[in-house]
Amino acid sequence: MGVPRAHSTRGQKGRRRSHLALKSIGLSLCPQCKKAKLPHAICLACGFYKGQEQINVLAKDLKKQEKARKRAS
Among 3, 11, 30, 52, which residue's CB has the most CB atoms within a 10 Å radius? Predict the structure, then answer.
């Protein structure tokens, strides 16, 4: 059988939990469209990364709309 753990004071619990707080996400601005994005990641709004288009966002949206129309009919 397991041995019961020793009693933890409020201070001990607080010191242990001091690192559990959520930290805010460090966002940066996209140089193309000026929207917030994660650093070192493709912008989800325009599809650019380091000045080059990586994802064709317009084509992706059109494809999504066509799929929705097919499901609706």
Answer: 30
Locus of tokens 């994802």: 55
Q: Where are the domains of the chain?
A: 24-72
CA-nearest of 33, 29, 24 to 41 is 29
Coil, strand or helix at 28:
strand
Q: Which residues sit opposite 37 in a β-bridge?
A: 28
Alpha carbon separation from 20 to 11, 41, 45 (Å, rounded):
15, 26, 32
CA dihedral angle for residue 37, residue 68, residue 63, residue 39, rounded to 10 degrees = 10
Q: How does pLDDT run along the chain (73 residues), one tens digit per residue? A: 678 778 889 999 999 999 999 999 999 999 999 999 999 999 999 999 999 999 898 898 899 999 999 999 8
